[in-house]
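Structure, all two chains, one model.
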Amino acid sequence: MRSYPIFIGDGLLTDRALLERLLPQRNLLVVTNGTVAKLHLAALVRGLGERTIATHSIPDGEEFKNLDTLNTIFDALADAKLHRDAAIVALGGGVVGDVAGFAAASYQRGIAYVQVPTTLLAQVDSAVGGKTGVNHRAGKNLIGAFHQPSGVLTDIATLRTLPARELRAGLAEVIKYGLMGDAQFLDWLEGSLDQLLRCQSAALEYAVRRSCEIKALLVAADEREQGARALLNLGHTFGHAIESATGYREWLHGEAVAVGLLMAADLSARLGWLAEADVQRVRALLQRASLPTSAPRVGTARALEFMTMDKKVKGGQLRLVLLPRLGAAQVSSDFDAGQLRATLQEFVGP
Amino acid sequence: MRSYPIFIGDGLLTDRALLERLLPQRNLLVVTNGTVAKLHLAALVRGLGERTIATHSIPDGEEFKNLDTLNTIFDALADAKLHRDAAIVALGGGVVGDVAGFAAASYQRGIAYVQVPTTLLAQVDSAVGGKTGVNHRAGKNLIGAFHQPSGVLTDIATLRTLPARELRAGLAEVIKYGLMGDAQFLDWLEGSLDQLLRCQSAALEYAVRRSCEIKALLVAADEREQGARALLNLGHTFGHAIESATGYREWLHGEAVAVGLLMAADLSARLGWLAEADVQRVRALLQRASLPTSAPRVGTARALEFMTMDKKVKGGQLRLVLLPRLGAAQVSSDFDAGQLRATLQEFVGP
C-alpha cells in the first residue's frame, strides 16, 4: 500500500508551503459544496496560489452521494479539460470526500486527489484510508473504489464553523476508536469530553490525531478490508441499517453509528462478553455527547434485510464487530439468531 | 501486478472443468447482450453447471457504453443480492467486457470477474490487460478503472457466428500488433490473411494467441500505462478522434483504428521514419482485409480537439505512437504541428 501524509493543525488551510508540497499539480478541480464554499473556499484558493483552479459544488447531504452527483464531477473535469496530470481537491465533509475521491479514482482511470476534510467525521474517518464511493438504493457505499489520496490536510479551525449537531456526530466515530482500539483513549475521552464539545483546540487536535493513528494502523495492515480493517466497522452494520431504512435523510451518519455502537455493546453483553455496567458506560458517554441512544422503530425484519445486504456478509453468514471488552473489538459470527433478534427488537422494534 | 490465465481454444465455452477452475464462485452474474445471449448464453450456462446464475443483458453498441448502462448492472447485482464473494462473467464483445469489468471494479469496491470475449476485437484487445470503463461525451473510455480479471476464456468457435464486418474490424487490431511489435508476425499476417478471413481455426487461434502475447508482455511491464503500454495505442489517438467526431455510431472501433494505423504510418513517413513503400504496404494489407483506408471528413480542427482531449496528452503536449519502421513503435511528440496538420488534412479534410 502506498503511504501518504496526514497533516493536522490549526490554520493549515492557508499554509501555502504545505499546500504546494501536497499539490504540485498546476491544474486543479476543487470539489466542495455551497455551505463549505462560503466558509472556506476563498481561503483555500488563496493558499493554493498561482494555478489554474476550477471549482465545482455538489449538493449537501448523504442523499446526494450517488451516481448522478458523481457524473456532475466527471462533467466538470471534462469541461475544464483536465488530464491525468491534474488533481482533485476534496474540500468538505464525508460526502464531498467520498464522491470526489471516487471521481478521482475513475476519471481517466485514476488521477491524484487530496482530502481537505472540514467536518470532524471526515477528519477522523472518511478522509483516511482510501475508501471512496457512492450509495445505491440497495445499500450505502455499495459502489466505489479503493483509491489512496496523495495526502490529507486537516485544518482543526474548520471545526469552529461546524454546526454543533455535526460536531457531536463526529464524536461518535471518535468514541468508536476508543471502544474498539484503545481503553486509555476511552478514559481520556471521558475526561476531555467537555473540552471537545467546547471546540478547545488542543483537545480536538489530539482526538483527531489519535483517531487517525488507530485507523491508519489498521488500514495499513489491511488496505482491502479482508481482516483487521473490518474492526473499524464497529457499530456500522447496525448504523448502516438505520440509515438505509430511513433513506439517509433523518439521521446523520455519526448519529446512526452512535446507536450502532450501543447496539454492538448490547449484543456483546448478551453474549456474556461485556458486563451490563460496560454497556451503561457506553450509553452514558454517548448521552453526555448528546448523541442518540435509541433507534427509529424500523422493525427487526427490515433492519436485518439491510444488514445482510451489507458488504461484510461472507458466504451468506452475517459477521458483526463485537466487543470482548471495552477497548478491544473482534469480528464474530459466533452469536445465535435469537441473540441478534433480541438486540434488534429492543432498539428498532419487532 | 496480479497475473491471470488466458485460455484460447475451440469449444472452451462448454468446458466444465476449465470453467470450474476459472470460476470457483457459487454466485454469478453473467453480463451479456441480446445478440450474444441468443448465440452462446445457453452453452455457457450449461458449461457452468450447478450454481446460482443471474443474467443481465445490456444494449448492443458503443453508444451504450455509458454510466446509465453501468448503473443497470449495479441494479442487477443488487437485485440478485450479490456480495463480495460473487463474480461477474462478461460474455460478449468489448462493450460488454469494458462495462461489466468496470461494474466488477466498483461494485462493493471490487469483486472478481472473468472475461469471455466473443468478438475478435475483444479477444485480442479489450479482454486482455485489465482496462475497464465507459465513455463520456468528452471522450472515449474517459471513466474507468484498472481491474484485472481472474482469467480470460477465449473460445475461437464464437468467431464463426460473428458478422464478417466485425471479424474484419478485429483484424485491424491484429494488424496493429504486427505493425507495432513484430515484423515477422506482420509477414505471417500478409501470408495468412485469406485463411483468417475464411475463419480457419488454426490461423485464428495463432493470430489471437500472438496478439495476446504481444499485448500481455507490454501490459505486464507497465500495468498503469506510464510507458511501454502506450505503444498499444498505435492508431488509437487518430481512431478515437474519428469515433468521437462521429458519435461512436457509424464506425466500428476496429475500422477507426484501421484508418488510424494508416494515419500513423503517413505521419511517420512525413517525419522520414517510414518509406512511402512502407505506407503502401500498410494500405494494401488493410485493403485486402476490406478495412477502410480513408476517414470521414470531420475536419482538422475538430479532430485535433478530440485528440488533445485524449488521455495520452501530458502537460498539454500531444504525444503520438509512431513507426520508426514496420514492426517497431515509439511514443513521440517530436513532430511539428504542420506535419500533423498535413496528415489530418489529407485524411479528415481541412
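The interface with chain A takes residues 67, 71, 74, 78-79, 81, 83-85, 105-110, 131, 133, 136-139, 141-146, 224-225, 308-309, 311, 313-315 of chain B (CB under 8 Å).
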